[in-house]
Fold:
Amino acid sequence: MAIAQATVSGGMRTQLRDFTSRRWLMAAIIIPLAFLYPIFDKWLGIGRIGSFEAILIYCILAMGLNVVVGYAGLLDLGYAAFFAIGAYTNAFITSPSSYFVLKGWIPEFVQHFWVAIAISWAVAALFGVLLGAPTLRLRGDYLAIVTLGFGEIVPNFFLNADKITGGTQGINLIATPPTIPLPGNHELSFGVTDQRNWFWLILVVLLFSLVLILRMKSSRLGRSWVAMREDEVAAASMGINLVRSKLWAFGLGASFAGFAGSLYAAAFTYVGPDQFLFSVSVMVLAMVILGGMGNVYGVIVGGILVGGFDRILADELNRPMQWLGGRIGYSGMESHDLGTDRFLVFGLALVVMMVARPEGLLPSQQRKRELREKPPSEGGPPIVVDLEATT
Amino acid sequence: MDLNWNLLVQSIVIGIASGSLIALIALGYTIVYGIVELINFAHGEVFMMGALCAITVVTATSVTSQSSWPAIVAVAIFGFMIAMAFSAGINLGIDRIAYRRLRSAPRLAPLIAAIGFSFILQNIGIYWKGSNTVSPPALIPQKYRAYNVLNEWFGLDTKIRIRPLDLMVVGVTIPLLIALTMFVYRTKTGRAMRATAQDRDAAALMGIDVNRTISIAFLLGGALAGAAGFIALYYNNSARYQMGFRYGLFAFTAAVLGGIGNMTGAVVGGICIGLVWAISDGFMRTLIDGWGAQWTPSVIFGVLVIVMIFRPSGLFGEHTDKV
Structure:
C-alpha cells in the first residue's frame, strides 16, 4: 500500500506536501533563532558555543546515518568509521605535519579547507560503497555485525599505523577555512577563538545537508529505498535494482559522515583515534532511534537531546546534583560525576525506545506503521537474498 | 628462514587455552541464536558481569593464596558457581525485560535493544568496580603461577611453558562442554530446545512451552558466560568494564566462523580464533617486522568480515537454512 502511495505521489507533489505552510512557519522561527544563538550566548554569558559546535556536527552525522538506517533500513553499526575517514582525510591533506604533505605528494592548491572538505566527502562516500559492495547481500543483522567489524578495524588502523597517522597523538594543525571578507570593514575569520563564526559555518553545512537529504528522500532513489525497506522482493519485482539502491544509500549516507568528520577535524584542528570509537557509532544510533528513524527533523531533535546530554547537561547538572547530595548527606551522590553516566543514557535511550516506542519521539508516519505491524512472514525470511537475480 | 619453533608451539599452547575460553562465550551466542535467531549483543557484557561478580564474591570470603588448600578450592568452586548463577540471572532478566516483548518486532529491534543493554551493563560495571582495571584477590599460590608443568612434572628440558593455569582453563572447559552436550542431546528439555530451534510453531503445537524453553537457552548461555568470566578473571589476572566488548566480539566471530547455531562449530571456531589471537600476539612478529599485539583486533575483525562475506554459514554450515 505504502509503496504505491510513495510511487504515485513522488516528485514535486511530495515536495509541496513536505513544505506545508506550518513547516515553513516552523522553519522561519527555528532557523533565525539558531543563527542568533551565539548572540544570546554572549548576552547571557552561557559560554556553550563550543559544545553546540560538536552537537551540530553530531546532528549531521545522525542525519547521514538516518539515510542508511531510517530510509534504506540497513543497520550500520560502524558509522563512526566514515566519520574517522572524513576527519583523517582532511588531516592528511591539510596538516603541515601530515606524512603525505611532508612527502610533497599533496599539491599546494589542494591543501585548502574547502578542497579538503570536498575530497573527504568523496573519500567517505567511496569507502561507503567499497564496504557496501560485498556485504549488501547479507541479511540485516549480519550486515550490522560486518559494519561493526569494519568500524573497529578503521580506528584500529589509524591507531596503529603511526608512521602515517601519528598513532595515539593524532594529527594537529589542520587547516581552517580562509577568512571571508564582508562588506564594510568586517570579516568572518575561522581561528580557534572565532567560535561564533564556526558555529554559523557548521549550521550552514547542516542546513545544506538537510536540503540535500530532503531532496534525496523524495527523489526516485529515495522512494526506491522506502520500497526496498518495506519489502525487498516486492521492490525488486517492481523493477528496483536492489544492489544499486543499497549502494547509493551506503555511499550517500557515508558521505555525510565525511562532511561531518572533515568539519570536526578543522573545527578542533586535531584528530586522534580515540574520537571514533564504537561508542560514537552507538551514540549516533541512539540519536536516530530516539528522534525517530526515517524522519530527518526528528533525528535532528534526537541529536540535540542526546548530544545535549553528552556535551552540556551532564556538565551543568553535576554541581546542583552534588550540592543536593551534600544536603541530604548521601556521599555517593555528592562525589558522583554525571559524565560517567553517558553509556547508561545511550543504552537506556535504545532499550526504552525499542520496547516502548520504536518509531521514536517524532516518528515518520510510514515507518511507524511498519514498526507496529508484524513481519511479513513469521517463519523468517530467507537470509541470503539472491540479489544477482535482479541485476 | 628458520622458524622459531619454540615460539610457535608456545603460541599454540596459549591459543588453545584462550580458545577454549572463547568457545565458552561463543556457545552462549550460538545457543541463543539457534533458538530465537537473535544476536545477543549484550552477551559479552554478561560475561564481564560474571568476572566482576567473581571478584566481589572471592574478596568477600577473604580467602587468599596463603589460606589452606581446601579453603582455596572451596572458595574457587563457590565463586565459580555464584558467577555462573549471576550471569545466568542477568541474561534471563534481559530476555524478560526486553527481548520477549520484541519477539514479533522487525529483526533489527531486538538487536538494537541488545546494544542498548550492552551499554547499560558496561555502565553498571563502571559503578561497580570503577573504570580502571582491577585484579582479583590471588588464589593460586605464588609457587604455581610461574610453574612449568613440562619441566616439573615430566622432567622435559624445554623452553615451552605450560602453566597449571593453562591446564585449568582447558580442564574446566571440557567438562562444561560435555555437560552441555549431554543436556542438549540427552534430556527432555534439551530435546525441547532442539525442537524449538527447528520450528517454533511446530514445537508449540507439540505441547512445548516455547517461552520457557527460550528462557532456558538464555539461562544456559548466561551460565556459560559467567563460567568464562570467572576463568578469564584468573587467566588474565584482571577485569575491566570494557573486557566484555572485545571478548564478546571475538567470541561472536568464533561462533560465526563455526556456523552460528551449531554447537560443535562454536567450539571449533573458538579454538581457531584463540589460535589466531595467540599467533598474532606472539609468533607473527618473528615473521613480519613491526607486527605486534596491537594489530590482533584488526586481524580478527578481518576474519569476521571475510567469513561473513564469503561463507556466512560458517565452517559447519549444515544449519544454513536457519542462518
Q: What stands out?
A: Chain B touches chain A through 48 residues (CB under 8 Å).
